[in-house]
Amino acid sequence: MTRTCSGSHAISSPYLCGSLRLPFPPSWLAMIATKEALNPIKQDCKKGKLRFVHNCFPYHGYIWNYGALPQTWEDPNHKDHDTGCMGDNDPIDACEIGTMVASRGEVKQVKILGTVALIDEGETDWKILCIDVNDPQAEKMNDVEDIEKHMPGLLKATVQWFKIYKIPAGSKENEFAFNGEAKNKEFAMKIIKETHECWSNLIMKKLENDKGLACKNISVEKSPYRIPEDEAANILNHVSILLL
């Protein structure tokens, strides 16, 4: 039986629920709509303009499967003690580096390998590095140093991609904490735990939801935002996907 769920709230870690780009047109920047009920995946819009993934030589679009870790939240009212910047008001982003191209909205169980700390327009924007547990390379991958060992150049390319990907749209280069150094699995798990606690406080209404996030869900026990499945299905039946 197919169940309706929220990609932000309904899937327990360590699963990757992605704003994965296919079958959207490859250039669309699709994101989890955190301010819409049940958080559908839609083309992102910023300052009234639709967003796209530009090609940045020598890269053509994304260089990994790109998604997010559900049940995490980078609190915009909390200064991250590692970066010194506030959170970006989103779930943690995840770069799944396996060999299999994912479908839009696909859920993957992943092994956490490490993280890099992007500072995106002054906000903390952690990027978790991970691999699908079913990927042929997964058995070899246990920590961040294994990425360089088995996929040489990918860490450097990842930092470079995030540094320049907004330039074609008129923005400046992005910056990184730790000079772009990738942190190991233990560090990444600490970040995931911290952001999961922030999400838990949000979904249990232990703090004020002053950023307009949509917290309705069907599965979080004792959450004041929990709704019946039939109500959730009705909500999604009325979701519109913006087409160009």
Automatic annotation (TrEMBL):
Annotated source species: Acropora cervicornis
Cofactor(s) listed: Mg(2+)
Matches recorded under Pfam families: Pyrophosphatase
Family label: Belongs to the PPase family.
Cytoplasm recorded as keyword: no
Alphabetized UniProt keyword annotations: Hydrolase, Magnesium, Metal-binding
Official protein name in the record: inorganic diphosphatase
InterPro entries cross-referenced by the UniProt entry: Pyrophosphatase, Pyrophosphatase_sf
